[in-house]
Write a structure and sequence with these properties.
2 domains; globular; ferrochelatase activity; EC 1.3.1.76; precorrin-2 dehydrogenase activity
Length: 156
Amino acid sequence: MDKAYFPMFVDISEKEIVVVGGGNIAARRVKTLLLFSDHITVIAPRLHDSLADLEAEGRITCLHRAYREGDIYNAHIVLAATDDKEVNRSIGEECNILGQKCGRKILFNTADDRTLCDFYFPAVVQTEDIVIGINSGGKNPAKVKEIRRRLGSGPC
């Protein structure tokens, strides 16, 4: 039996977050992350319209190009959401190597291989006073989506 992940709520308001990829998944994750942090950089040659809008509003920083080694040097949290599994995997490896060299942990999540993730990205429902994170450990995203829908609308 797989271990369950402990649901921990952490202040990421001052953490540097890098999202690699500019499609639907990246857009949903950035929208959720913006509820908790203003330090988000997106790296992608092309951006989903909603990401382009967030960049135009000055809410995120975007590098309009493919990922380059070293782009995560100052990051605390990295999300790989490209459509290339090999690129996502190599970014995860770089997080581990850089973290070891610098004596810190860079938390990594990828949209396509839960075995490489340090954390799973939750569905979030937020009201004025309450934040609810819902997760299935990557095993049943459809069920998570359904529960989020029943609890109320959320950004992702």
